[in-house]
Amino acid sequence: MPKERILVVDDEPDMLSSCQRLLSRSGYEVKVAPSGREALRMLKEESFDLILTDLRMPEMDGMEVLRLSREQSPDSAVIVFTGYGTIQDAVMAMKSGASDFVTKPFSPDHLLLAVEKAAGNLRLAAENRALKGQLEERFSFDNIVGRSPAMREVFDAIRKIADTNANVLITGESGTGKELIARSIHVNSGRKNRPFVPLNCGGIPEHLVESELFGHEKGAFTGAAATRPGLLEFASTGTFFMDEISELPLNLQVKLLRVLEDRRIRRVGSNREIEIDIRLISATNRNIQQMVKEGVFREDLFYRVNTFVIHLPPLRERMDDLPLLAVHFLKRYAKSTSKVVEGIAPEVMSVLKSHAWNGNVRELQHVIERAVALTTENVVRLEDLPDQLWRGADEGTGEPSPEERSHFDLPFKDAKEAMIESFERKYILKLLSKHKGNISRAAEGSGIDRRSLHRLLVKHRIEASKYA
Ligand SMILES: Nc1ncnc2c1ncn2[C@@H]1O[C@H](COP(=O)(O)OP(=O)(O)OP(=O)(O)O)[C@@H](O)[C@H]1O
Ligand SMILES: [Mg+2]
Questions:
Q1: Cα 206 to middle of ligand 2, angstroms
Q2: All structural domains of the chain
Q3: Which residues carry this modification: 4-aspartylphosphate (predicted)?
C-alpha cells in the first residue's frame, strides 16, 4: 500500500526542508507550502491524507489553514505545530478538529511518531469503513451479523426452514441471539404478517403459566374475573415463541404435547375446544437432552419440538464475528446518540478479542453501547471500556499489553518513545481514577506540577471529569 500523502505548511524554510527530508525517508509522499495561502491553493488542486501546519504564520495563520482544510477535505487529518508554552493554541486547534499537535522544537522521532499515529488512525478509519461495507453487503441477514462458519450455517438454516411449518428448537448460552433468530425465522416465513407471540416460561410463576398459555373462562379460579384467551390462541396462524422451554413444568409439558398433536386447545374452565394453527419455535440455554435423561423433561415433547435444531455457539468460539459485531453495534449506537464515532482503536479490538464474553453478544452490545456514550473522540479508546475488561489486560501480570507488544516491531528509538507514551497514558489514567478526577490532588499525589499534568491530559486527550 502506498504511504500517505502529506502536506507540510510552515513559514520557516528550514523546517520545511527538514520535515520533507525526514518524512520522505520514511516513505511518505511529501509536499511543502511556505505560507497558508500557498497551502490553500495546493489543497484545491490535490488531496492530502495528512496536513502538518504551523499555527503562527504571518498573513494567514494555521487556524485558518485548519478550518479551510476541514472544509476542503474532511477525511484528512491535521497536525499542528505549536511553540513552547502555547498550550492554549493547541487546545483551540484540537477543538477545531486538529487530530494532534507537536510542540516546537521537536525531535525527528517525536514528529515521526505523531505522523505514524495519525496515519494509523486514518488507516483504521478506512478499515472500519470497509467493515461497514461488509456488514451491508455480505455478512448480515436481518440485522443478524456474523461471518464465522457457524453463523453462515445459521443463515443457511434460516433460509431453508423459515418458510416451512417445522418446529424449531434454538439452543445456545444466554445472550447468543436466540430470540433474534426466532424473530428472523418468523419474518422470513409465510406467517410474517401474523402475530409473533413470545412467552418466557421461566419468567412467570408456575401456577400462572397454564392460564397464560390456554386462557381461562370467567370464574375458572379465584381471580379469574373475566374470560381471557391464552397466548396460544393469540399466536394462532402466527408463530409462538417459547423461550426457556426447559422451565415448563412437567404437567404442562404433557398439555403442550397434546396441543402440538391435536392442534386444539381448551381454555381453563371451559369444555369447548378451539382449533389453533401455530408454528412453534422454542429456545433454551440448558442441555435439554441431559434433562430428558434425568427425567425432568419429557422425551416425547423433546422429539416434538426439535424437528429442526439451530445451535448458536458461544461468542468465544466464533471470535471471527467479534469485529463485525462490534462495528455493527458501534454504528447503531453512534446513530441513536447522534455521535460521530468512526471506529475502534486497534488496542481496544485486541482487548475485546482476548475477553471471555461469558455474557456473549449481549455483553458485547452493552460494552459498545457504554463506550459510545463515554467516548469524547471519534474512536473508542481503552478507557471507554469497563475497567475490569482492560485493566486486567495489562496489569499485575507484568506482561506487555497488545498495544505495547506492537511497539517491539519498531526501531529502538521509536519503540522507546512509544513505550514512554503508553506509560504516560496509563500512569495518568490510574492517577486520575485514584484521585477521582481531581487534578490538584492528582498533581500533588504524583509530584507532577499542575501545568505539566494539564499538558499531559491534553496530549493524551484524557478528560479528568470522566473519573470524577
Ligand atoms: N449475531 C448477532 N448479530 C447482531 N446482534 C445480535 C446477534 N446475536 C445477538 N445479538 C443481540 O444481542 C442481544 C441478545 O440477543 P438475544 O436476546 O436474542 O439472546 P438470547 O440468546 O435470547 O439470550 P437469553 O438466553 O439471555 O434470552 C440482542 O440485543 C440481540 O439483538
Ligand atoms: Mg432470549
A1: 19
A2: 5-135 (3.40.50.2300), 149-314 (3.40.50.300), 317-467 (1.10.8.60)
A3: 54
